[in-house]
Amino acid sequence: MIVFRFEGRPITAEEGQSIGAALHAAGIRSWRTTRFGGRPRGLFCAIGACFDCLLTVNGAPDQRACQTVARAGDEVSG
Ligand code: FES
């Protein structure tokens, strides 16, 4: 198991697990909102096709949570 941080909160993930899967397992279902309408977004397709799951990882914006493997010490935000 590894630990990364989502908006300051420690999140435990299995080695090789995606950030999106780890957030989902932790009960976090959305981490950003749409530009128009402010609707919540998180995992949708979970296969890298829809880009609904974008977040920032270690300062790098627009990373797909469903395709990004969680690493120990990552700092993640919506
Ligand atoms: S959930 Fe669709 S690209 Fe990540």
From TrEMBL:
The keyword Kinase does not apply. Keywords: Oxidoreductase. One of its GO terms (molecular function) is iron-sulfur cluster binding. It holds the Pfam family Fer2_4. The keyword Oxidoreductase applies. InterPro entries: 2Fe-2S-bd_N, 2Fe-2S_ferredoxin-like_sf. This is (2Fe-2S)-binding protein. It comes from Herbidospora galbida.
